[in-house]
Design brief:
The protein is mostly helical. Helices cover about 50% and strands about 5% of the residues. The strands form two sheets. The protein has a five-stranded parallel sheet with strand order 3-2-1-4-5. Strands 6-7 form a two-stranded parallel sheet. The chain binds flavin-adenine dinucleotide.
Length: about 500
C-alpha cells in the first residue's frame, strides 16, 4: 500500500501525489491532525475552522471514489508508525511543502523515519516553488512552463482499505487559544470554485483600481488566498482559468471589454508573486525568525513597547484607518494588500516595534496565513530586507485616499459613527466628538521622521550594507524587465519614501 499524505493540498483534482500513487498501488488517503502544530504561536482557531470545511469536502470527494479520507490525530511519525504496524507500506506520497519552521523540522523527522524503514517518500512539485534552487535567473520562465502544463484529472476509483479514522478534536481540546472571529470565509473546494468564477466573470472587473481601498477590495479582490493556502484549488488551475478568461476577453468587441483586460493582467501577475515570495522562504527558512539583511539586527529589539503593541492589536491606536483595519481583520480574517502593508508599516515605523510579534499576531488573524508570503512581506514593510525601497505609509493620507467618505471607518469604529465628516480622519481635532475613541498613541509626523532618519543613517554611505544587499538581490530578487529595472534604480536613489504630512 502507498500512503498519500494530504497537507496543504486539500483537493483531488490536479493532485500529482494522489494521481501518481494511484497508478502504483492501493492508496490510503491520509490527513494527520498534529496537535503540536496547532499549539505553535502562528496558528489560530480561524485556520482550524477553514481547515474543517476543507477536510469535510475532501472526505466527501474521496468517499465518492471508493475510499474515505483517513484522519489521524497525533505526531506524524507516531501516526505513520502505527499505520505501518497494520499495513505493508511501500511508499509515502505528499506534495513538497514550503511552510513554517515547525513543519520543516517535522518533515526532517519523517524523512528519517522513511529512511529507517526503507519506505520511499515521493514529494512531487506543488505550485511553482522550486526546491534546492541554484539560480534565480530562469525562475519566472520555469514558473510559466509549470503553470501551462495540462491539469491532472482526479482518479476515477480508489480501492477500499481497512482502516479507521480518529474524530477531529474540538479546537479547545487542542489546547490552543481563543479567537473572536465571527465572519470568516467558508473553506472547501466548492466555495473556492465559486469565488474563482464570480471573480473572473463578475466581481473582478474593477480589480486594478479597487484592490487598494478596503471599501471596495472585500468584493473586488479574488478572495482566493485562503484557498491557495489550504490547496482546495491548485495554482495551475487558477492560472489556467485566468488564461481562459483572457482569451474570451480578447475575442470581445472593444466596447464590451471594459476594464477586464487590466484586471486579469494584474491578477495573473499576482499569482506569480505568490510563488515568488514563497520561494524566498524555501531558499532561506531563517527569514521566518531573523532579519533578511543583517545590518538591521539590533535596530528595534530593545525598544519594544508593549503598550503600543496592545493598542495596535486591539484597534485602539488613535489613527482611524489603522484601527478600522485591525478591527475588520480581527472580525473577518481578511484585509487587502495595501491595508496589510499600512498596518505593518505603522507597527514597524511609527510604533518602532520589531516585526516578529506583530507578524505572529497578523498570522493568527489572516485566514490565508502563508508563511512564505507573510514573512517576506512583513520584512519588506518593516524595511529589513535591505533591498527594497522603504515605504512609510502615512495612515491619515491612506484614510483620505482610500476611504474618503469614512464609510469603512464608521462601520468598524462605532465610536466615530456620528463624528463630523471633517474630522473622520483626524478625530483628535474634534474634541468632544471622540466618544471614547482614544487620542493617537504617538505623533504621526515625529515618529515617521524618527524612523526615516534611523534607517537612512544606517544605509547612507554604508559599503557593508550595499555588499550584503547585493548578495540578497542575487538570491531573492525578482529579475526585472529593463523598464522596471530603470524605475527601481531611480527609486533606489531615494531609498526612504515617506508619505508626506498633509
Ligand atoms: C504584511 C503582509 C502580510 C501578508 N501575508 C500574507 C499571507 O500570509 N498570505 C497570503 O496569501 N498573502 C499575504 N499577503 C499578500 C496579500 O495581501 C494577499 O495575498 C491578498 O491580500 C489576498 O487576498 P486575495 O486572494 O483577494 O488577493 P488578490 O488580490 O485577488 O490576488 C490573488 C492572489 O495573488 C497572490 N497575491 C496577491 N498579492 C500578493 C502579494 N503582494 N504578494 C504575494 N502574493 C500575492 C495571493 O495568492 C492572492 O490570493 C501579505 C501582505 C502583506 C503586506
Amino acid at each position: 500500500m502507498h500512503i498519500v499524505w494530504f497537507k496543504r493540498d486539500l483537493r483531488i483534482e490536479d493532485h500529482q501525489a494522489l494521481i501518481q500513487a494511484v497508478q502504483s498501488a492501493p492508496v490510503m488517503p491520509l490527513y494527520i491532525l498534529e496537535p503540536e502544530l496547532w499549539q505553535q504561536p502562528d496558528m489560530s482557531r480561524r485556520h482550524y475552522m477553514f481547515l474543517q470545511d476543507c477536510l469535510y469536502e475532501l472526505d466527501q470527494s474521496l468517499t465518492m471514489l471508493g475510499q474515505k479520507l483517513i484522519i489521524k490525530v497525533g505526531n506524524a511519525v507516531d501516526v505513520l508508525d502505527a499505520i505501518r504496524a497494520r499495513h505493508a507500506i511501500q511508499a509515502l506520497w505528499s506534495h513538497q511543502e514550503t511552510w513554517n519552521g515547525w513543519s520543516y523540522e517535522r518533515d526532517k523527522a519523517v524523512k528519517c523515519w522513511c529512511k529507517s524503514h526503507t519506505i520511499t517518500w515521493h514529494e512531487p512539485f506543488q505550485n511553482g516553488v522550486i526546491r534546492r534552487l541554484s539560480d534565480r535567473n530562469d525562475w519566472s520562465a520555469r514558473w510559466y512552463r509549470e503553470m501551462k502544463k495540462p491539469m491532472l484529472r482526479a482518479p476515477s476509483y480508489l480501492k477500499t482499505i481497512d482502516e479507521y479514522s480518529d474524530n477531529l478534536p474540538d479546537y479547545a481540546e487542542l489546547g490552543a487559544g481563543q479567537d473572536s472571529v465571527n465572519g470568516i470565509q467558508k473553506g472547501g473546494r466548492t466555495e473556492g470554485l465559486r469565488q474563482l468564477k464570480s471573480f473572473l466573470y463578475k466581481r473582478g472587473e474593477g480589480y486594478s483600481k479597487e484592490m487598494s481601498s478596503p471599501v471596495t477590495a472585500f468584493d473586488s479582490c479574488s478572495r482566493l488566498s485562503a484557498h491557495l493556502a489550504f490547496g482546495t484549488l491548485s495554482m495551475r488551475e487558477i492560472f489556467q482559468a485566468c488564461e481562459k478568461r483572457n482569451q474570451e476577453i480578447r475575442k470581445m468587441a472593444r466596447e464590451d471589454k471594459g476594464k477586464w483586460p487590466s484586471a486579469t493582467r494584474s491578477f495573473s501577475s499576482r499569482l506569480r508573486w505568490h510563488c515568488h515570495f514563497m520561494q524566498k522562504l524555501e531558499d532561506e527558512p531563517r527569514i521566518e525568525f531573523k532579519n533578511m539583511h543583517p545590518a538591521y539586527n539590533g535596530l528595534r529589539e530593545q525598544d519594544f513597547n508593549n503598550d503600543y503593541f496592545e493598542a495596535w492589536k486591539s484597534g485602539m491606536a488613535g489613527y482611524p484607518m489603522v484601527d478600522a483595519c485591525m478591527r475588520a481583520l480581527t472580525a473577518t480574517g481578511w484585509l487587502n494588500f495595501r491595508m496589510r502593508a499600512m498596518v505593518m508599516s505603522f507597527a514597524s515605523y511609527h510604533l518602532w516595534l520589531h516585526w516578529r510579534k506583530p507578524a505572529l499576531h497578523l498570522a493568527n488573524l489572516f485566514t490565508d496565513y502563508e508563511p512564505g508570503i507573510h514573512y517576506s512581506q512583513v520584512q519588506m514593510q518593516s524595511g529589513t530586507t535591505g533591498i527594497n525601497a522603504i515605504r512609510i505609509y502615512n495612515p491619515i493620507k491612506q484614510g483620505i485616499d482610500h476611504d474618503p467618505e469614512g464609510s469603512f471607518i464608521r462601520h468598524w469604529i462605532p465610536e466615530l459613527r456620528n463624528i463630523d465628516q471633517a474630522y473622520i480622519h483626524t478625530p483628535w481635532q474634534a474634541g468632544s466628538q471622540m466618544n471614547g475613541y482614544p487620542m493617537p498613541i504617538v505623533d504621526e509626523k515625529t515618529t515617521r521622521k524618527a524612523a526615516a532618519d534611523k534607517l537612512y543613517s544606517l544605509r547612507k554611505n554604508n559599503a557593508a550594507h550595499r555588499e550584503a544587499a547585493q548578495t540578497i538581490v542575487k538570491k531573492h530578487g525578482s529579475r526585472k524587465s529593463v523598464s522596471t529595472r530603470k524605475r527601481r534604480q531611480k527609486q533606489a536613489k531615494t531609498p526612504i519614501q515617506c508619505e508626506l504630512p498633509l
